[in-house]
Amino acid sequence: MSSSDTKSITVIGSGLIGRSWAMVFASGGYRVKIYDNQPGQAAKAITEIRSQLEELEEAHMLRGELTAMQQLTLLSSYDDLAQALEGAFFVQECVFEQLEVKQSVFQDIECLVGKDVILSSSTSCLVPSNVFSKVQNRSRCLVSHPVNPPYYVKLVELIPHPETEATVMDTTHAVMTKVGQAPVRLKREIDGFALNRVQAAIIAESWRLVQGGVISVKDIDLVMSEGLGMRYAFIGPMETMHLNAPEGLEDYMKRYGEGITRVLNSFGPVPNFFGDGAESIVNEMCELIPSDQQHLSARRERRDQLLMGLAKLKKDH
């Protein structure tokens, strides 16, 4: 890949995820063209990004080797799709999580770009074969699923369409690595991808334990934040098992495999997340953190500050 200073990436959609992607790509030195079909929204997004980059620079948490001002000069806004796509080698779509909307957007994009331009979707729950079903050349299509907020949580899942060429996966992996993300490749598409499937398993058992009167909402969150999450922030479940037995993973399974199987067999059915049974859990959560915008915004800001600190710690180590 040639030097990124002559390469352009187009971000479609200027909402939270679109702005985050724009900041990530600019931090890696790419020119980023932001498009939004609502007039003036893309320009407004750059104004918001300017404020964020200046705050990050002041906090010494700005990503990449360029200053905030240098990164801002790489950003441009467009209300015209054709102009936004001109010269781009990579397109990152970040529109509403609605299948028909995404399908329509990619149909429009395909008519305006060359056959070698990579088309990437930020969808979190729609599989590539559905998202790109109306695209003619699907060999250059994939899903790049970020974790919110992408600027602080670097994981991005790369999920191929059944027709995606290996070189497209390789190029996207290289781009994501260059801009400081932590890309992982799925070998095939699957509902929920990897992150959301693991997250769903945690949600389900946490919900069952609270609903079954075993533990409180507050304490099940502590199980993760002060227990599993402490080590999972640096090493995953496979390495955790490998390190937690004197002779590694095989030894771990000899020691604990039967117990894990017994516990798994005791799991109940998928919980009902709605109705009367769910109301008490929602109420318990809202007693801890009220669901009005003032309290939620404050906790989100706290979350992002903590993630920023954790990201810095991981970078320094």
TrEMBL record:
<dbReference type="Pfam" id="PF02737">
    <property type="entry name" value="3HCDH_N"/>
</dbReference>
<dbReference type="GO" id="GO:0006631">
    <property type="term" value="P:fatty acid metabolic process"/>
</dbReference>
<feature type="domain" description="3-hydroxyacyl-CoA dehydrogenase NAD binding">
    <location>
        <begin position="9"/>
        <end position="187"/>
    </location>
</feature>
<dbReference type="InterPro" id="IPR006180">
    <property type="entry name" value="3-OHacyl-CoA_DH_CS"/>
</dbReference>
<comment type="similarity">
    <text>Belongs to the 3-hydroxyacyl-CoA dehydrogenase family.</text>
</comment>
<dbReference type="GO" id="GO:0070403">
    <property type="term" value="F:NAD+ binding"/>
</dbReference>
<protein>
    <submittedName>
        <fullName>Crystallin, lambda 1</fullName>
    </submittedName>
</protein>
<dbReference type="InterPro" id="IPR006176">
    <property type="entry name" value="3-OHacyl-CoA_DH_NAD-bd"/>
</dbReference>
<keyword id="KW-0560">Oxidoreductase</keyword>
<dbReference type="InterPro" id="IPR006108">
    <property type="entry name" value="3HC_DH_C"/>
</dbReference>
<dbReference type="InterPro" id="IPR008927">
    <property type="entry name" value="6-PGluconate_DH-like_C_sf"/>
</dbReference>
<dbReference type="InterPro" id="IPR036291">
    <property type="entry name" value="NAD(P)-bd_dom_sf"/>
</dbReference>
<feature type="domain" description="3-hydroxyacyl-CoA dehydrogenase C-terminal">
    <location>
        <begin position="192"/>
        <end position="260"/>
    </location>
</feature>
<dbReference type="GO" id="GO:0050104">
    <property type="term" value="F:L-gulonate 3-dehydrogenase activity"/>
</dbReference>
<dbReference type="InterPro" id="IPR013328">
    <property type="entry name" value="6PGD_dom2"/>
</dbReference>
<dbReference type="Pfam" id="PF00725">
    <property type="entry name" value="3HCDH"/>
</dbReference>
